[in-house]
Amino acid sequence: MTVLLYDNPVSGNCYKVRLILSLLGIEFERREVSVLDLSDRIEVLGGLSPTLNVPVVVLDDGRPLAESNAILWHFADGTRYLPDDPYERARILQWMFFEQHKHEPAIAVLRYWQSIREEELPAAETEAKRDAGRVALRVMERHLREHDYFVGAGFTIADIALYAYTHVAPEGGFALDPYPAVTGWLARVAAEPGVTPISA
Amino acid sequence: MTVLLYDNPVSGNCYKVRLILSLLGIEFERREVSVLDLSDRIEVLGGLSPTLNVPVVVLDDGRPLAESNAILWHFADGTRYLPDDPYERARILQWMFFEQHKHEPAIAVLRYWQSIREEELPAAETEAKRDAGRVALRVMERHLREHDYFVGAGFTIADIALYAYTHVAPEGGFALDPYPAVTGWLARVAAEPGVTPISA
Questions:
Q1: How far is B191 from chain A (nearest CA, A)?
Q2: Pick from A50, A97, A142: which is nearest to B100 by CB?
Q3: Run means of pLDDT, 10 residues per run, chain B, 200 residues
Q4: Cα distance between residue B74 and residue A87, in whole Å
Q5: Could you give the CA distance from residue A98 to residue A88 in angstroms, rounded to a whole number?
Q6: Domain for residue B199, yes or no?
Q7: Rounded to 5 degrees, what angle do the CA atoms B164, B167, B170 make?
Q8: CATH number of residue A107's parent domain
Q9: A51, A71, A139 member nearest B102 (Cβ)
Q10: Could you say which of B54, B76, B98 is where a domain stops?
């Protein structure tokens, strides 16, 4: 069996999975799920994803796995994208939990409303997410002033997790000019062999 | 060196770390950080936690680690609380990312405002978090109707991560009666050797 990815082309969380599978040369089949019309979610994803969110993969043994960063971990384990050192592995998880708790809920959500749904959130909510997104970008900026990549000496799944929505943050109205260390890191990630942007 | 935990007694995220360290019999020193007065955060946690949040641990080799679920993973790896099977490990991460993305931002945050700060959030925000928390509880309920624990046959760090804020969810105004599979699981976790509630 080929790996099956329940996917959406504009979702950064789905992009993470497409990217790691491509980098590792793992063949996969894509099945597109809408992020605008959610009416068929139970029918399509019930029994595969507890939250009915994409991405979900069905592994080559038929078992399902959800949550983008858990999927990254699963495929990257044993490869150059997830080092063996226990401390580096824990730090990779540290940054991936930061991404899902502090970065994605602000930066991905504003992009979703502005560029994908093309609707307005209530102003107070937009403002709160704008502030939270800037805080997340400053956290990244401070770290990247002193490090080329998030963990260790090279490109890992921590970088993939954070690259996904950062390289398209302007689509949610976030200017990246105030974060030169972040933009330098974005350029380094973009230059990694096999990395293509979400729109490619 | 002893493990040092920057801790707060009412924080569920800190409780996760205290619990795994106690279960594993690892000695640690606690240094209390306020969750109400944040004015000394940079002075105390700068250089240790990128987000200036607790918990943070300083390991016995002097290196820092932040994010509660990354800390759980680090200490549990190689123990009965984190099995070796690659698929089970990925599923544990799946549920821990669910916890930080969908559960904690709703259920922990309402508890923080209602029972710790004792202040009101704006009504629309409270309502949105109430709805999101109920969705998270329903996701847990559906899974626990068919499983005794979140992953595999026994108690793992996925259960610890989700137990932390679920067993005190009523402090945030969430009734647990509508979720009998969740309350059954809470009782199983509470009966695990060495598990004590946050208030103990």
A1: 26
A2: A97
A3: 96 98 98 96 96 97 98 98 98 98 98 95 94 98 98 97 98 98 98 95
A4: 8
A5: 15
A6: no
A7: 125
A8: 1.20.1050.10
A9: A51
A10: B76
Note the pLDDT tens digit of each residue in A18-67.
999 999 999 999 999 999 999 999 999 999 999 999 999 999 999 999 99
Q: Is the pTM of this model over 0.95?
A: yes
What b/e readout covers B37-52, taking b as 16+ CB neighbours within 10 angstroms? eeeebeebbeebbbbb
Segments of chain A assigned E as strands = 3-7, 28-32, 56-58, 64-66
Total domain count, chain B: 2
In a domain, A113, yes or no: yes
Answer whether B86 sits within 8 Å of A74, measured CB to CB.
Answer: yes
Residue count of chain B = 200
Angle, CA of B182, B186 and B190, to the nearest 5° = 170
- How are strands ordered across the β-sheet holding A56-58? A28-32, A3-7, A56-58, A64-66
The answer to the question of residue B38 being in a domain is: yes
Q: Are residues A118 and A72 in the same domain?
A: no
Query: What is the pLDDT confidence band of residue A200, given thresholds at 50, 70 and 90?
Result: confident
Of A31, A50, A76, which residue sits at a domain end? A76
Q: What is the dihedral of CA A13, B108, B24, B77, to 10 degrees?
A: 0
Among chain B residues, CA nearest to A128: B125
Tens of pLDDT along A72-118?
Answer: 999 999 999 999 999 999 999 999 999 999 999 999 999 999 999 99
Range of the structural domain that residue A177 is part of: 86-190
ipTM strictly over 0.95? yes
Measured in degrees and rounded to the nearest 5, phi and psi for residue B176 equal -100, -10
Option in B71, B90, B142 nearest A65 (CB): B90
Q: Give the burial class of A42: count Cβ atoms within 10 A of its Cβ; 0-12 exposed, 13-18 middle, 19 or more buried.
A: exposed
Predicted local distance difference test score (pLDDT) of residue B1: 86
